[in-house]
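Hi again,

Forgot to attach this to my earlier email, sorry! This is the prediction with pyridoxal-5'-phosphate bound. I've pasted everything inline since the attachment limit keeps bouncing my files.
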Amino acid sequence: MNFDLENLVRENIKNLTPYSSARKEFSGAAQIFLDANENSFGSPLAQNFNRYPDPLQTSIKEKIAEWNNVKPSEIFVGNGSDEAIDLLFRIFCRPQIDNVLICPPTYGMYEVSAEINDVKIKRANLTVDFELDFERIKNSIDENTKLLFVCSPNNPSGNSFERENILRLVKDFQGLVVVDEAYIHFSQEKSLVSEINNFPNLVILQTFSKAWGLAGLRVGLAFADEKTIKLFNRVKPPYNVSQIAQEAILQALENKSQVKETIAEIVSEREKLIEKLNEFSFVTKIYPSDANFILVKSTDAEQIYKFLLGEKIVVRNRSNVELCAGCLRITVGTSEENKALLNSLEKLTEENTEEENLSTDSHR
Ligand SMILES: Cc1ncc(COP(=O)(O)O)c(C=O)c1O
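Structure tokens for the complex follow:
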């Protein structure tokens, strides 16, 4: 592999003088802070939020670094992993010149971020059984392909790619391979975070929105070589993670065992749900899932989707997505939620049977 980070970065970013925030310029021990135009009188709340938060989320990074056996300088903390995705475009992709490669069906934000940044998307679809298509990937790459997104476990198919297969791409590609591990905590496969020291072109995305149950806080992570993380820090807005989010994440990191229990429960609910869903005649296939959702192929996705909406249950209709004709993506809920879903589907089966009986009657 012939990877050169310097070559990959946009000129304007290389030449950028980053914004230097008050909190970055002075981080010593003072008693009176009159440097950041904050409001020294406090906030109209029980807790004060009148001071800007730590721009580099030092305490969070220290904890996550220790836990993942990496250095704090190899971690970026963002306003959701969606922020990291957008930053990758802004740092590396020249609008209207560069392109990125995605492997559909996959998470929609890669494409939206590309469009926002006026960067071309190339698509190397997965195979029909949702595996990486190496030949297609290889043939889609050109000298302006800067990023290759691999989502594992993949949204919406739910499967993970084998570690060796992802690393094969990392070894062969001269740009950055971005492995989105939003759902890794539900997976059989181990995270690739441990590989960032072996591959300077590997970026791993993770999030607190899924297994950690903290989607409302908006906190995501990127792990990569510290040179890449430095670039993230240069380009990101100065205070991209709020004080309240930083405090809550620090507390949550003390409750890892609770998260582990929830993961085990979700995985067990997932398996139960798969078993029950398989009993419905309108379900034609359930794809194996390594995530907290299931991709279900059905005879009539639109009808089921609308029926469930009438029952006040929202699932995701993915039937217009590549390779997902007839498919609904169903998030695994609590045991009660899953039961309610199954009850509603029973109701739909009964209604369909009644209708069938009526129409056979009328043909008699
Ligand atoms: C694959 C994948 N990556 C990233 C995200 C977004 O994560 P965050 O909430 O951290 O922005 C999602 C959300 O659904 C996702 O499915």
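The longest strand covers residues 145-151. Residues 22 and 28 are 12 Å apart (CA to CA).

That should be everything now.

G.
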